[in-house]
């Protein structure tokens, strides 16, 4: 149905795709895995028309085609659900679903909003999402926006005569298990009309859903594995080029924290509509993880400590000093670093270089008489690029052009190089491959050894248990249970889930 032959793609200083062959059969679900920087995102954008190949051919149903842009891709039935999402948050759900295709609802120059809402409900029903199509998208949760993104792509069914090719780029990264099950059921039901390309770093999900799996490394396809022959360990070895460390969460490197000192504390803190009466202390060297279902208040607590949200009651203290004015600038000045869930929106600045992003929170250290000492900035960036293994042609490269995992490393470098001793990590391994996750786990242990207090919202419960000294379980914005997580005496999954739901 769809085929790439000997496709090449170059960027300045990077050979991103090297003679890639890639085929999708009608009604097939094809998995695509590889480390961050292996070429997966480049391949997906090339299929979607956002990039043009420098060599090779693309064919659909045996006919060679040229797809100049995403609009042309959609006209040929190729849609994409983006990891970082492509919705415009100040538009309504229905406006996002039919963005660029509003003309079907226009009569004498006036949009028929009722007709658009009815059509949007039909698309939302495909993903079992019962929401008002007229609601502004920014009011939805991340998981709800992900399902709206999928319903937007499924609207291609009504506009295209032939079969669809739907690209799923990390679609499950922040979905709860029941939402993942729903998504997989929808995908399987749609294979009568569509083929899917599924990109994920969750290997169990790739093996569960895919008919075949393409494994990429350094811009090349190193193997194509049939579903029945797929083994996680073998695929991970091909991706990373080495055996994965069995001591995955570095539990043996976990050392006791300093319980005599307090870096930050919440005392009966509430934020209307998000959480209420939350109390805890964060100590030097402690990894304190907040766990709970989506909407339990975990992310809002992190944003409050950083200064983005002002609590409605209670007391927030940093190093013994009560915080009275909440702002991100104040958080930075107090030595608080924040690695947000949506790194492309809040973590990095697209259009700025790697070195500019790394030094963004500490420009005062490189400014003399109003003039930036750029040579010093670049030297600092190079040292962190080497330390964290950031894959980039140079420190001058646009940070927005890096893979998601390398962007995440840039965000971590920004705060650690600036000396932040309170780190707020919101899903720091979301969308990262197995090797990049290990790098982040190593860095968390290094920060803990350096007496950095870490408040963590983990990507999985296993990650929370493996990394944490302390776990606090939240439900509906309220404290439920506190667990100590000493090596060899950590709580079980059941212990956490029992209090979460």
What does this structure look like?
This protein has a 6-stranded mixed beta sheet with strand order 6-9-10-3-11-12, sandwiched between helices. The model has no long low-confidence stretch (mean pLDDT 88). The chain has 17 helices and 24 strands. With 501 residues, it is of the alpha/beta class. It has 3 domains: 239 residues, P-loop containing nucleotide triphosphate hydrolases (Rossmann fold), CATH 3.40.50.300; 172 residues, Rossmann fold, CATH 3.40.50.300; 72 residues, no CATH class.
Name of the CATH architecture of the largest domain: 3-Layer(aba) Sandwich
How would a textbook summarize the main sheet? 6 strands, mixed
**Helix fraction?**
25-40%
The side-by-side strand order for the widest beta sheet comes to 6-9-10-3-11-12
Tell me, rounded to a whole number, the average pLDDT. Answer: 88
Number of strands: 24
Oligomeric state of shown chains: single chain
**Cα shape:** globular
CATH superfamily of the largest domain: P-loop containing nucleotide triphosphate hydrolases
Q: Which stretches are poorly predicted, pLDDT < 50 over at least 5 residues?
A: none
Structural class: alpha/beta
CATH topology of the largest domain: Rossmann fold
In short:
Helices cover 32% and strands 26% of the residues. It is of the alpha/beta class and 501 residues long.
List the helices and strands and how they pair.
Layout: E1 2-11, E2 14-24, E3 29-34, H1 40-48, E4 55-60, E5 63-65, H2 70-75, E6 78-81, H3 93-97, E7 106-107, E8 110-111, H4 113-125, H5 142-154, E9 164-169, H6 177-190, E10 194-199, H7 203-209, E11 212-217, E12 220-226, H8 232-240, E13 264-271, E14 275-282, E15 287-291, H9 298-306, E16 313-318, E17 321-322, H10 328-333, E18 336-339, H11 343-347, H12 354-358, E19 367-368, E20 371-372, H13 374-388, H14 404-417, E21 422-426, H15 434-449, E22 453-457, H16 461-467, E23 470-475, E24 478-484, H17 493-500
Parallel strand pairs: 3-10, 3-11, 6-9, 9-10, 15-22, 15-23, 18-21, 21-22
Antiparallel strand pairs: 1-2, 1-4, 4-5, 7-8, 11-12, 13-14, 13-16, 16-17, 19-20, 23-24
Helix pairs in contact: 13-14
